[in-house]
Amino acid sequence: MKNILKFFLSSYLLILTTVFFLYSAENKTLKNGVSVIFALDPTVTTTAIQIWVAVGSTDEDKNISGISHFIEHLIFKGTPTRTQKQIAPEIEKLGGIINAATSKDFTYFHTVVPSSYSLKAAEILTDAVLNPLFPEEEIEKERKVILEEIKRKDDNPQSLLFDEFYNHVYLNFFRYAQKVIGTEETVSKLKRDDFLSFHKKFYVPKNIFVVVTGNFNKKEMLGFLKNSFGKLKKLKKEKEKFKETLIQKIAVKLKDAENFKYSFSEPYKKTIKKDVSHSYIIMGFPAANIKSDDQYPLDVASYILGTGRASRLYKKLVEETNLAYTVSASFATHKGPGLFYVYAECSPENTSTVSNKILIELNQLTFENVTDEELDRARVLLIRDKLLQEQTPDGKAEELGFYAALGNKKITDNYIKNIKKIRPECIKNVISKYLIFPNIPTVIITP
Amino acid sequence: MKKIVLLSHFLAFSLFHFLYAQTNKIVLENGFTLVHCEKKKIRLVSVNLFVKDGAAVETDNEAGITNLTVQLLTKGTTNRTSEKIAIESESLGATISAGCSNNFSEVSILVPSDNFASAFDIFADVVHNPIFPEKEFEKEKIKILAGIKSKSDHIFNVAYDYFNELIFRNHPYHKPVEGYKTTVSSLTASQISDNYRKHFKTANMVLCVTGDVDFETTKKLVEKYFGNIKIIGTTEKTKKEQPKIELPKQSKKIYTGKFQQSYIFSGFLAPDINQKEYATLKLVNAILGGGMGSRLFDVLREKNGLVYEGDSFYPSRKETSDFVLYAGTSKENVATVEKIFIDEIKKLSELTDDELKNAKEYLKGTYFLDHRTIQRQGWWLGFWEIMGRGYEYDKKYVEDIDKITVPDIKNVCDKYLTPKNITTVILK
Q1: Which of A169, A291, B28, B276 could form a disulfide with B32 if both were Cys (CB 3.0 to 4.6 A apart)?
Q2: In A149-289, at which residue ranges do the beta strands (DSSP E only) sit?
Q3: Rounded to a whole number, what is the distance in Å from the CA of A385 to chain B's nearest CA?
């Protein structure tokens, strides 16, 4: 049975690979440096338009923490030629949806509309992103909205856990430690001039990636983008590179950010007492950055460990022993060192057993090869999830925009090929390379 | 402007035609219903099984039994252990999931199309041959109890549960679908087994298959796995006569919570999915809470900066439903938000043709966009079928929205959304 399954999985992987190559994207760079990515699919009836800007909380000094996210909100407040009501509500009148999001490394604005309105939607979204007015009265109202958003986030144990974990793991080393949303203190102090200068500094051609997918007229769309984004002034000085944003004291140690591994000399475990129903645990370590090929075995390792009921951790901690209510593992890709982590929920009395067992499982990956069956299961699920992502124009655009904004466009096309190359020893090597053992950074929220 | 609207109407119709050009439905002799819709080249297949009668048919004493039953389906069959089900399905790139709502239970599987037949074998096995092993039963119960407990960590869930208890009173919708700590704790494996036999009958089942598999292949598989099942016992509906609930007079309860924010829910009892006002009230919901152009977004966020999250919703349910406005806000702003809710309800009678037109476009557009994936397409087809409107209503719903006029909106608001009948829960 096992052999039959293995044969079957191998042939299945081949079939999927051919499908992906049919949908390769077209990359163009406008004369001023704005990147344009098209993925035309004439079989669908919608168009997704996404504007990715390579600016996020890692670009913020401590005193302006949260400014990227604040700007994301203010983008919808009006331009010299459009009121607030002529931006998002206008897209909705076309039967479309529109929204935006901010992260550590990027901010993006996205819409999906029926194809016949693709150009109109592109005009609205482009105007909003490039020409925001930042009206004083709107800033004050939106400040209150964001302060509510901060409270809401802190009320949620999972959000709090992740924020604390990033802060704990990256500590004083990287701006990844800073919250994307900022703090009550910084958000309360940001002024219109701060927004104007931040927007001027970072919303520049080299940082902009426009992604259009689905059904649309390529020639017409490209013409519009040349006339809008193409008119932005090309700046001689590029945005600071990632390494330059590192805090000085560690920059010396991290000449090669791709291959770094740091020892965690600070107390590795942080426990937060809170009025919650059970324990929320997260533990993990910084790992490969966006340029590194280590991302592929790290993705596979995360699926072997904690994606699905048949994953190692789920089987051992939930199915077999009932020690945890849930457990999962993931590798979060960043421009700088990404984050490999395991998340679990359990009763307070099982907290230390669960975190110890997670540590044992992680360590086991460093000296014992995973089985072929485990590897095949992880790969087929990863490929299935990529298919799911690419099922819609906006899913496809998100994938293209994400990797482009982070600085490695090739991943979208090469992902399956590289996942297929993974062998059991790759998992052992990659976890050995990055795992901080035994003092793995851990944050626990517990009653 | 008119040209744009006409074009957009046309577009909505043609988009739906595109989606469902190849939808087929058959009913097997034993009453099992198959709805199939092919979508070529997608390389995935989504399978959604809907089973009539969800948590609403439970008594208060057995609250949570439907949820526990469906969660246990994947935890062991006469042919496979729980572990084998997980390993076999995930090795095919498939994920089987199960859940329930007030009106139906669901079991679904999403699988790469090349592995469809193998995955369907596992799927049919969990639907037909579950054995509810005692050990798995105890484990699942602990997990569900933990889930019930953890709801207390999430402000929305806490406030919404309070609200349902108040507005639905003696109607089964007052209960959370996952049940209460006391009721779930007292359930036994034999109760689960009995519950399964009572409800999981072929005549109660609608299977939706969407994606990269043709009708003939699907039909053969369905006949192979579901066609030979004889009807056990009677096929009469398991539905019980539910208690009628009267329109409540204004009622309000204030609770104290452990959170930084406060939450407010205000709402009214509203028509069920089969009533003629259903589509009209969906449109009212779009006017009030539909996106960034909606009235609540405008008044709560854009004009006053009172909330990050403030919205309305109108769940599609059998027998009765509710129309709800809610918001998360600072404790000092709760009274202001409560007043805004009442004001906005009163202002619904002030509706222009333009606003109606915009709300229609938004509602139809978001509805269409919610059909982008095969999982959602399959879900909608099965949903309309199991709720008694037939899968064809997926298209007709859009036509019904187009027919709604300003007077229709006024009538439905006068009838259902009267401030003197409002139910409010505040979690401070």
Answers
A1: B28
A2: 208-214, 269-273, 279-286
A3: 9
Q: Is B404 in contact with B360 (CB distance < 8 Å)?
A: yes
Q: What is the mean pLDDT of chain B?
A: 91
The sheet with strand A269-273 has its strands ordered as: A269-273, A442-446, A279-286, A339-346, A324-332
Contact between B207 and B46 under an 8 Å Cβ cutoff? The reply is no
CA angle B105, B110, B111 (to 5 degrees): 150
Tell me, yes or no, whether A229 lies in a domain: yes
Across the interface, whether the CB atoms of A94 and B8 are under 8 A apart is answered: yes
pLDDT in tens, A151-168: 999 999 999 999 999 998
Inter-chain CB proximity A310 and B90 less than 8 Å: yes
Whether A43 sits inside 8 A of B139 (CB atoms) is: no
Q: How confident is the model at residue A15 (pLDDT cuts 50, 70, 90)?
A: very low
Domain that holds residue A170: 25-235
Looking at the structure, do residues A128 and A263 belong to the same domain, yes or no? Answer: no
How many angstroms separate the CA atoms of B28 and B147, rounded? 38
Q: CATH number of the domain at A430, please.
A: 3.30.830.10
> Which of A145, A184, A307, A385 is most worth mutating to test chain B (most B CB atoms within 10 A of its CB)?
A145
φ, ψ for residue A265 (rounded to 5)? Answer: -85, -20
The total number of structural domains that make up chain A: 2
All structural domains of chain B: 20-227 (3.30.830.10), 251-427 (3.30.830.10)
- Which residue type sits at A38? F
In a domain, residue A123? The reply is yes
Which of A370, A400, A326, A425 shows the shortest CA–CA distance to A106? Answer: A400
* DSSP, residue by residue, A47-102: EEEEEEES--GGG--GGGTTHHHHHHHHGGGB-SS-BGGGSHHHHHHTT-EEEEEE
Q: Are B145 and B187 in contact (CB under 8 A)?
A: no
Residue to test with chain A: of B96, B136, B153, most A Cβ within 10 A: B153
Inter-chain residue contact A152 with B261, CB threshold 8 Å: yes
Burial of A263 (0-12, 13-18, 19+ CB in 10 A): exposed
Residue carrying structure tokens 């604005």: A109
Mark whether A187 and A95 lie in a shared domain.
yes
Helix A410-421, helix A295-306: angle, nearest 10: 60
- pTM assigned to the model: 0.91
What interface predicted TM-score (ipTM) does this complex get? 0.90
Look at the alpha carbons of B187, B190, B194, B197 in this order and tell me if their dihedral is positive or negative. positive
- Write the single-letter amino acid at B359: A
Q: Are residues A194 and A279 in the same domain?
A: no
B274-302 confidence digits (pLDDT tens): 999 999 999 999 999 989 999 999 999 99
